[in-house]
Amino acid sequence: SEIEGEVDKxxxxxxxxxxxxxxxxFCDQINKELEGPQIAVRLLAHKIQSPQEWEAxxxxxxxxxxxxxxxxxxxNEVGKFRFLNELIKxxxxxxxxxxxxxxxxxxxxxxxxxxxxxxxxxxxIKDAYYMLKRQGIVMFDPVIPADRTxxxxxPPRPKNP
Amino acid sequence: LGEESEERxxxxxxx
Lengths: 161, 15
Known about the structure:
- The complex is a heterodimer of chains A (161) and B (15).
- Chain A is mainly α.
- Chain A has helices at 2-11, 20-32, 36-48, 53-69, 71-78, 81-91, 102-118, 123-134.
- Chain B is rod-shaped and about 25 Å long.
- Chain B contains one helix and no strands.
């Protein structure tokens, strides 16, 4: 699928920095395909669990961008336990948590929390987040910088060189 | 029907 090629480009560990051309290309591809969101979240879950930190960090940036740019269809897929469980595995010491960097775990928790605030209708996101709090995996709600809250605005495009 | 069965199969990870 073209989506697979796009996610590989957007999360490639040899990218020197987050590549917004590829990230936007991935979002556009999701919006074009009927099954785009379902395929995308499955691929992203796999990348987020990468043992390479930089690949995982880029995948989380892509996920955040998709939540801003791919609309309700994408929110609905993220709001299923099928996908949320893959994020829970990343932060839980019972699963991958002990092998995942703090940077990746912090970003996962920040994203989950920001969605509980921005998308209250996606009740499973709240269920997942509060389960992590009950388990003591999340000790306090993170402070989300204003520019990182989920508002449906286009992400910054790189300036022309 | 597909959506209903998908909903039934969608569970939070056991911890």
